[in-house]
Amino acid sequence: xxxxxxxxxxxxxxxxxxxxxxxxxxxxxxxxxxxxxxxxxxxxxxxxxxxxxxxxxxxxxxxxxxxxxxxxxxxxxxxxxxxxxxxxxxxxxxxxxxxxxxxxxxxxxxxxxxxxxxxxxxxxxxxxxxxxxxxxxxxxxxxxxxxxxxxxxxxxxxxxxxxxxxxxxxxxxxxxxxxxxxxxxxxxxxxxxxxxxxxxxxxxxxxxxxxxxxxxxxxxxxxxxxxxxxxxxxxxxxxxxxxxxxxxxxxxxxxxxxxxxxxxxxxxxxxxxxxxxxxxxxxxxxxxxxxxxxxxxxxxxxxxxxxxxxxxxxxxxxxxxxxxxxxxxxxxxxxxxxxxxxxxxxxxxxxxxxxxxxxxxxxxxxxxxxxxxxxxxxxxxxxxxxxxxxxxxxxxxxxxxxxxxxxxxxxxxxxxxxxxxxxxxxxxxxxxxxxxxxxxxxxxxxxxxxxxxxxxxxxxxxxxxxxxxxxxxxxxxxxxxxxxxxxxxxx
Length: 491
Known about the structure:
By secondary structure, the protein is mainly α. It contains 17 helices and two strands. The chain is globular, with a radius of gyration of 21 Å.
């Protein structure tokens, strides 16, 4: 039983052709672009922008967005080639299985939990923050008590300790049940939400531009120093490493375009629609991000984001500085709540499809690949994910899970870039509807830029990633290797 045995491309394509026996093909190119934008625009933009400005780069967080966008674009070109050539669920896990063997496929599948499941938890926590903002500033009622909307590892300025984040747990449960009902229904709901939140982002950029204070952008790249937050965590602030740290932090804002690739087996014409969905959603969001970050850091100060404006930062900045536009803060709060919901939807969709593929391959228990007889969705995988994501959302602080998501995703992107190079060598004659340009330059540069952003996230996140991967290896060698269908065809 070889840990390096690869899953034949012919077998993967055969599985894709049998989709009528499994997942239902209902998604179009527009559905995929909407799914991508739905995942991309969310907590990363409305929460992590202020976090990166406060901890890492000040106004030069916009440069961090550009660095992150370059890394995502390079990786996105690689994703587009792989997803159009191997149109089957599983994303980077499936591509790695076909190119670099079972062990690395397991590692990336385990790593993708950091991207999708922990990412959904991060957005669920941000959803909880804006729910309180809605209750106080829009509905003018009492907020949810601190202890019931924060993790046990957090405490307020008044010394109140958190117990669990109930709103975050609740939204994860509702979205999970919607996904069990059906992918097409979920995509329709997501499409309506996407139109709403893109309109809100554009409105903030246009109206907020007139409230930019040039002093807040001076100096644009702060002098290199360090910043220690209220939890005694120290960050590189300003200078080169401040910008790179900001890129690693706001990289979370781009997570989502790759989740489109996990829906390949549910797409009507994946060879044409996959590249459109991945690259189209990424291009639209990159432009909006840079403009939004420039406006937000011009309206409010770094000290605002380090203090009272740290939570629900966008609504805070509008209420404090955009006099006469308090209604916009209320509208933003409502729209962001819906927007976050669509991000959670796509993250949970991606995670369930990765688990579905791993269950079919025997690397996870078979019930993960069970499809509902009526809804044709991997409902058991969704229920397990509900429990996993719910625990993270309820009991872990948002900053920690956000950085775990970023580093896990960057690691996945590196392997995707390498997969393109390997597959070009091992399967040179394979039909590719979309080809990554300038190979090997684009995949190599993509891997290097992603690795640079990993360096910017600091040793504490490297340690968390190492511990997570070590747990995954224990599971692989005690369960997955023995039950792998590829290595044990008689099972």
